[in-house]
Structure formats: C-alpha cells, structure tokens
C-alpha cells in the first residue's frame, strides 16, 4: 500500500498529489534502497501521476518505516504487514492499496485502479527457486508440496491478515513471471534513469 505519515497532514493520495504538483521536488518519497522494488514502483507512480517527488533511499525496510513514521518522507510503498503496526499506532496513514481488490482488513482504502491508475500494479511477489540443474522429479515433488501448503486453510488465513495473495501453480508460471520482469525492468530502469551511487 502507498502510505504517508500522520505528520504530513495528508489524508488522501489526491491531497498529496495536489501538493506535489503545486511544489515540484518539495515532497519526498522513501524506499528501502536504490533499485529496491518500492523505489522503482514509486518512480513509475511519480511519472504516471505527473509529479516530481524527491527520492530518499534508506538502508532497508526497517529504517524506511522509521523514516515514514517520523515524517522524514511523505510517501512510501510498504507491504501490509510492515505498515500495520504504524497504522494501528496512528503514525502511518494508508492512502491507496495495490492489487485488484480492496483488502478485507482495510475495506475503506481504495485501490490504485479506483483512484484512476488502472494499468499500474506494483504488487511485490515472492517465489521459491532451486539451483539450475535440479532433477525434474525433485522440482515436481517440491512444487506439489508447496502447492499443498499454499492451499492449507490456516496458511490462507495467515496470508490474508498480512495482505498476501497466495498463488501456486506449475514451475513454468514463476519462470514466465521472472522472464517478464527480466525483460521489463532493464528498460524501465534506463527510462527512469535509476542509477546506483
């Protein structure tokens, strides 16, 4: 989800974007580091929204969360589980959520599509991989066990609380996703002019 700090005074993405357009470069967004998923995603959002936010890279997610809670940056993209404690404490304000549907724990929070960003979904994904050359029967056995675990009722309930959508399937599904990202990200990084320091 996209979040801001209580200290920012913004209660909606619309308000934040209006302020960013009125004062280009004055508002900051934080990431877990240069090239991190949430860095690239917010740069994409920045371009789509037609604003110019200043990037503040942190050394990991923990310092980023501390920075957003302290009001050092006005925008960040966090996963649900990382943002929950700050939201409950009132120091983090959720603005928009990624994904196709509203999350059950925050049904009042609009999605990016509902806010007008219909072809943009910066959701993070996590996959399980094995070394190249792992025998096919071993891959098949691991895949079957993982799919069984992902279908478990308790696992689904735990995932839902944390804002995760479980998606198993055949190994080719993940291989295709990796290939898609490997093709898309180099061009995106060049276009956004993202450079490591």
From TrEMBL:
PANTHER family from the UniProt entry: BLR1237 PROTEIN, TRICARBOXYLATE-BINDING PROTEIN
CDD domains: PBP2_Bug_TTT
Domain of life from the UniProt record: Bacteria
Family per similarity comment: Belongs to the UPF0065 (bug) family.
Organism per entry: Ramlibacter terrae
InterPro entries for the chain: BUG, Bug_dom1
Protein name per the record: Tripartite tricarboxylate transporter substrate binding protein
